[in-house]
């Protein structure tokens, strides 16, 4: 397991990077990189001389370039795509799964992807958690850790990951951390850059339109320079949560991004429990139709797509729910807890399972369907036992059932 910091990675690779921009004036000084035709790959978008007028007449015989996508209509190259969702909804999972798909060429949530190299800066998860999550993703996609050489992750936990700050007079100052990440992206030839989460990266006022736009433009410049797609995970504002739009504190966040996704809980069951279903929506797409959606659910500790050609089938999803049901049944039995198939009983199995932290996102309805299917397949049955002279019933496995708990 690689616990190296970005500094360690650069040092081990023999790489170097410049702090801020060349010149004694710092990032906002007159010598800032970006002036003139020889500007470096990380030129400030607003540096003097950075603007390059284009004469359209010169394009008379130039082929019109095709738009480049990592995921058609979803994730475009050369700009930032924001992925908005409340904490714990699964943004880190979709992002790390995307890195896995682009590394291995496997489908991402049912969509074909362009295979490429990637880096991911995860500011909220340490290396052990990223390792555990990756193990689940690998098992769900039928790949191994040895297949993942094209991807890199960086845990930012315990570090100051701010990419830029602003002086009282409004000048943006780009930090060392930005240059570290940009250098790692360059040395790894990353065409996908995951940044999780904007709250850790943006050192300004999220309601200041000018500051927000300059920050997004800094990332857009990185995407253009690298020929990469950037997926930026974001938490919505309170107003965004209340309205259901899941957008940020200022309209500048959405307006500055060419593309924006939202990841939200689909429904909550009758007991107020999260049933594990999610909806990933294309809320904004300047270069594609709005309104695309992917229906997902938690299964086996990962988000998997539902009801879409080329994705996990409904039968496979039901089989996964049945597998989890049997595992929880065995765990309850080992803890001395008896289970009932009666909806009116206090120990009704689906309701008991839906309250457990190890339920893998399933709710009462999914567990009820799994229970009925397991009864029909004769994998579980009700057994009579005596309790203080009273005849009772409890749920047990059939002796010859093939499934075993993990």
Can you give keywords for this protein?
single chain; 406 residues; alpha/beta; 9-stranded mixed β-sheet; 3-stranded mixed β-sheet; 30% helix; elongated; disordered C terminus
Question: In total, how many beta strands?
Answer: 16
The main pleated sheet reads as: 9 strands, mixed
Give the overall shape. Answer: elongated
Q: In terms of per-residue confidence, which ranges show pLDDT below 50 for 5 or more consecutive residues?
A: 9-43, 308-312, 401-406
Record the strand order, biggest sheet.
Answer: 5-4-8-10-3-11-12-13-14
Q: First CA to last CA: what distance?
A: 24 Å
The H-and-E topology, N to C, reads as HEEEHEHEEEHEHEHEHHEEEEHHHEE
By DSSP (H or I, 4+ residues per run), the number of helices equals: 11
State the helicity in percent bands: 25-40%
Roughly how many Å is the radius of gyration?
A: 25 Å
Task: Give an overview in words.
- The chain has 406 residues and is α/β, with parallel strands linked by helices.
- Helix content is 30%, strand content 20%.
- It contains 11 helices and 16 strands.
- The strands form 4 sheets. A 9-stranded mixed sheet has the order 5-4-8-10-3-11-12-13-14, sandwiched between helices.
- Helix 9 crosses helix 11.
- The longest helix is centred in the last third of the chain and has 21 residues, at 314-334.
- The two termini are 24 Å apart.
């Amino acid at each position: 397991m690689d616990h190296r910091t970005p500094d360690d990675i650069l040092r081990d690779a023999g790489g170097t990077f410049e702090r801020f921009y060349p010149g004694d004036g710092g990032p906002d000084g007159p010598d800032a990189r970006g002036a003139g035709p020889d500007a470096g790959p990380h030129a400030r978008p607003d540096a003097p001389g950075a603007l390059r007028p284009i004469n359209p007449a010169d394009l008379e015989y130039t082929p019109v370039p095709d738009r480049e996508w990592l995921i058609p209509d979803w994730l475009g190259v050369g700009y930032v795509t924001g992925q908005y969702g409340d904490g714990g909804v699964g943004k880190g999972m979709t992002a790390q799964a995307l890195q896995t798909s682009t590394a291995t060429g496997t489908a991402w949530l049912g969509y074909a992807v362009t295979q490429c190299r990637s880096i991911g800066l995860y500011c909220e998860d340490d290396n052990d958690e990223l390792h555990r999550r990756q193990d689940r993703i690998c098992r769900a996609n039928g790949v191994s850790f040895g297949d993942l050489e094209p991807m890199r992750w960086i845990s930012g936990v315990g570090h100051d990951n701010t990419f830029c700050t602003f002086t009282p007079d409004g000048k943006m100052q780009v930090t060392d951390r930005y240059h570290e990440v940009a250098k790692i992206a360059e040395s790894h030839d990353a065409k996908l850059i995951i940044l999780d989460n904007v709250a850790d990266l943006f050192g300004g006022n999220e309601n200041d339109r000018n500051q927000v736009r300059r920050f997004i433009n800094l990332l857009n410049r990185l995407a253009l320079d690298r020929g990469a797609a950037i997926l930026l995970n974001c938490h919505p504002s309170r107003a965004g949560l209340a309205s259901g739009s899941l957008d940020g504190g200022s309209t500048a966040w959405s307006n500055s991004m060419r593309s924006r996704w939202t990841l939200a809980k689909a429904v909550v069951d009758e007991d107020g429990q999260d049933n594990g279903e999610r909806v990933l929506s294309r809320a904004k797409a300047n270069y594609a139709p709005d309104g695309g959606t992917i229906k997902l659910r938690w299964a086996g500790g990962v988000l998997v797509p539902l009801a879409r050609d080329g994705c996990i089938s409904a039968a496979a999803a039901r089989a996964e729910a049945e597998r989890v049901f049997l595992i929880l049944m065995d765990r309850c039995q080992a803890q001395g807890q008896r289970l009932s198939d009666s909806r009116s009983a206090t120990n009704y199995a689906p309701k008991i399972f839906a309250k457990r932290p190890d339920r893998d996102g399933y709710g009462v309805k999914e567990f009820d369907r799994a229970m009925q299917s397991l009864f029909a397949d004769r994998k579980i049955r009700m057994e009579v036992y005596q309790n203080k002279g009273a005849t009772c019933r409890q749920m047990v496995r059939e002796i010859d059932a093939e499934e075993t708990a993990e």
